[in-house]
Request: fold
Amino acid sequence: MQRLAPVSFRQIRYWVCLFCAFSVLGVSLAEAQHKSNRLRPRYLSNEAPDQERGREIISHFQKLGLAGDYFFGFDLEVLPRRGKRTVVPGNMWGTRLDLGPTFRAEIASPSGDSVERFLAVNGPEPLTWRKIAAEQGVTEVDQNQLLDSIAGTGISLFELQMPFIYWPEFVYEGTTEIRGRAVHAFLMHPPDDFAAAHPQIAGVRLHLDAKFHALMQAVFLDENEEPERKMTVLDLKKLGDQWIVKSIEVRDEKTRDKVRFEVTRAALDLNFSAALFTPEFLTQEISPPESVQRLGW
Reply:
């Protein structure tokens, strides 16, 4: 039998380096292709607006939040274009950790036979965990699951958590009007990992109130810049000296199905234990605080 020629260490190193170089090149080409396919901004004036001013506006928006911890009791009104209207109750406890705004939420299924609990940390590196009452243990939610419907309601964790407001790459498009109010428009570009998991979302166009820098609308766009889904803030409510979002509507632009998130009870200026906002604590059932007040119009 013919013996194979011995392979030197130098030859092995050559082929390993060549393989690594081609691997890195493949990743770089994929990233370059993704960025070349990005949506183009629609500037709202003849000249591109001041991008430094845009960065200041969105940075200010990202730092906004309620003073102290909070509790919201809410209803999810499921409004299919065809079918029966359903109201699903839920609760939310919120705080702000070093990593960013954080909330714990629980939502019943429309049938009422199960409850899903979530822990979401927003910010530049968002994290999410999930606990379904019928299942054991707490699982971390990955990118592929972010757009899944929660408890069959039609609303997703992506819409509740809104990680897109922290996407680092964006273009400031200028100012326009939404529902009679002046707004700043931003085209948010998805990170590579999100784009790979959800190619149907090519970008998110944010509209921020020009006076208060609060979110007015977020439109999820496909690769042809056609709206996939649209989130619109409908009402605000003042509690004491703080303003909260009273209701938000999420509409599927293809099916015209809608889900309306409406805060029905609230308590502000609270001080929760940090343990409440850990994945391990999702296995524990907790009650709303005693200071909750029911909201009218």
Summary: Residues 37 and 160 are 27 Å apart (CA to CA). The chain has one domain: 36-289.
